[in-house]
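Fig. S4 source data, part A: sequence.
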Amino acid sequence: MNTTKDLNYRLYLQRESGFKRTSYDSEFEKYNCISSGDVEKVKKNFAAIKKDYLAGKGVLSDNPVRNVRYHFIIAVAMTARACVADGMGHDTAYTLSDIYIQKADKCNSAEGIIDLLGEMQLDFAERMREIKKANAVSIHIRKCIDYIYDHLDESLTEEMLASYLHIDKSYLSKLFLKEMGIHFKKFIINARVNAAKNMLIYSDYSYLDISLSLGFSSQSAFISIFRKVTGTTPGKFRTAYKGSLHIDKSGIKNDN
């Protein structure tokens, strides 16, 4: 079936109406927030899009409810895949995806499906947060890890976290090493590198943008630290993963 004529006509209509799709980078930044377990950011993102959920989205059906349901299915599929890539079990992610798609299938209003989207995103984000702090035992370390993931773009120090937790810096340092099996600074570096991996795979952000958004002191520092932790450069990492994973413009990720 030749779709060129229909495609050109629809692109013409979109240009004439001033329609602009949500940017590729912005879309995948939202999935990155979920897979990194950034619960507060996920809440803020959903509150912002809920006001005009269909802004920047294409029309997938003339039926308003079915149109939102199709967008929901795409979103939950992408969310599950992003979370698998960031550490969630394959069976858990896809079964959870099935559950939410079945819920959406039973929902008879666009508003209800949109509310379900917020519920789904928070569910995945909260589970990812728990995965990332699974080895932590004490309340101090759980709060410390939550703070780190919520502030990866900032300069994080033991003094800052100790003050936030109202405990002694030396005590925090020893407790963190005991419960996490890794030094505080190395944990932050690994958290930033893992977040950078997601951004390299699921977005087209430049290395400078990534370094700034994840609290690296400079682009060169980001590249150096990434190479030290992973054994490869950001460029080679992005090429390797984008060579094995194809993400098309519709937002559906397919294996080649």
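Fig. S4 source data, part B ends here. Residues 245-256 have pLDDT under 50 and may be disordered.
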